[in-house]
Amino acid sequence: MKKTAVTSLVALGAMMLLPGNAAAATTPRVVVDDDRAQCVDADYTSISKAVHEAPAGAVVQVCPGRYREWVTVDKPLTIRGQLDEVEALDCFDPTPSQLDDLDPTRFAIVEPPDESETSLFSLAADNVELAGFVLQGLYRPTPTLVDGFTMYTPAVAASSGYSGYQIHHNLIRKNTFGIELGSNGTTQSRAHHNCLRENRWALANQRQLLKGARIDHNSTFRTQGIAYEIGWAYAGTERLTLDHNASRGDLNGYRVENTAGTLIDQNTVEAGGRGIWVSGRNAGLEVTTNALSGGSLGAILFSTPILAVPEPTTDALVTGNTITGYLGNGVSIGGQAKVTGTELSGNVITENGGTGILVLDGNTDNVIRGNTADRNAFGIRTGLYTTGNTIESNQMLGNGQFDAREATFTTVDGVTVLGNNWIGNQCVTDDPAGTICPAAS
């Protein structure tokens, strides 16, 4: 028995040492500490040197400290700072941030070492994970021109030649531009659980094509330009989901242009300027179940396409959203936006200073159905020369001027013919009087 047992243990030990055995596999790990004060046995004092020398697939663990350097990642690596410390921060703390207000004995802080137009982290490999850092102070307000387009330097640049990025649990603050996210879509890239505050732009793809990505559970605060700029004339996006993000105090929450298959779902936008801004060339856009409140402009705007992207947005779905407390309109489709085939349904739009739903000229063959537009300045109204839309089964009550207003109509032999199809709506006050609301007939 004893001999058998010993033989079995020897055999088991040999099996454990075989290449490919899961129990024997260990992930290479290197440790970085700028002053070796927190991690006395650190292998490196520089993140960039550790990244350069680490083997592909390694974990680069960065201890607390202040790191003034540029880091280029050109192989699959996991680069981790202090996730728990970043996660414990209140991204919406109203106290303005200062570049020296975080303790470098608790946080891994990365800042620019000089005035170069370079990103703090440049990611150019598949399956790179970047987590647990404070990335700050890359303020480069003067753009560079690329093919006639103005480009800004981001704190994190993820190249569109690769995929599988995981960028999470970072505090990215006081930069011109936070994350430039590109991906070729081979595997999903994800940016999640980041705090992006007091940047001019929080996250955009700018010069990078972005395919097959998810942007979720991030917080943006006091963004001076646009929190999420999705697609652009220079480079578009495909198959992108933005969900469960929280935007507060941003001048613009979302801007969407030149996209295919974008879903904006279950996000919150509050106390900012405009909520969601939809420009040209968006196919299959879905804006669903978002909560937008308290902005100084309007909640959702379909704007006139710009010259660089003249094609209109088509076949969009805006449904299940809650919109309240905006100084401007709830949902507006702007003049000559040329939006067609779009459905606005099941939205609850209340107590806004402008119109609940506004459709202006040049937009046709859209359906506005089953919405609640109560206690706004107007409920639902159309602009002059707006025709061919169906406005059906909506509730419009208690609005300041008219619950329902149609600006395009003709009257022949005492019969008023409206330019749009108003069917089965619940309202009290209408213009022209007696043409839309049963209670006003």
Topology readout:
Layout (H helix, E strand, L loop, with lengths): L1 H15 L12 E4 L14 H7 L5 E4 L2 E4 L2 E3 L4 E3 L2 H5 L20 E4 L9 E3 L5 E3 L1 E4 L7 E3 L2 E3 L4 E3 L7 E3 L2 E3 L3 E5 L1 E10 L2 E3 L3 E4 L5 E7 L2 E3 L4 E5 L6 E7 L2 E3 L3 E5 L2 E7 L2 E3 L3 E5 L3 E2 L2 E3 L2 E3 L6 E3 L14 E3 L2 E3 L6 E3 L9 E3 L2 E3 L4 E5 L7 E3 L2 E3 L3 E5 L7 E3 L2 E2 L5 E4 L3 E4 L2 E4 L2 E3 L2 E2 L2 E2 L10
Parallel strand pairs: 1-2, 2-5, 3-6, 4-7, 5-8, 6-9, 7-12, 8-13, 9-14, 12-15, 13-16, 14-17, 15-18, 16-19, 17-20, 18-21, 19-22, 20-23, 21-24, 22-25, 23-26, 24-27, 25-28, 25-29, 26-30, 27-31, 29-32, 30-33, 31-34, 32-35, 33-36, 34-37, 35-38, 36-39, 37-40, 38-41, 40-43, 41-46, 42-47, 43-48
Antiparallel strand pairs: 10-11, 44-45
Helical proportion, percent range: under 10%
Mean pLDDT: 94
Radius of gyration: 27 Å
Strand content: 35-45%
By secondary-structure content and strand pairing, the structural class works out as: mainly beta
Number of helices: 3
Count of domains: 2
- Biggest pleated-sheet summary: 16 strands, parallel
Name the shape in a single word. Answer: elongated
Q: What is the number of E strands? A: 48
Distance between the termini: 100 Å
pLDDT < 50 runs, ≥5 residues = 1-24
Task: Explain this structure.
The chain is 6% helix and 41% strand. The chain is mainly beta and 441 residues long. It has 2 domains: 38-229, no CATH class; 273-441. It has a 16-stranded parallel β-sheet that branches. The chain has a 14-stranded parallel β-sheet with strand order 4-7-12-15-18-21-24-27-31-34-37-40-43-48. The chain has a 12-stranded parallel β-sheet with strand order 3-6-9-14-17-20-23-26-30-33-36-39, with no helix packed on it. A hairpin with a 2-residue loop joins strand 10 and strand 11. The protein is elongated and about 90 Å long. The model is unreliable at 1-24 (pLDDT under 50).
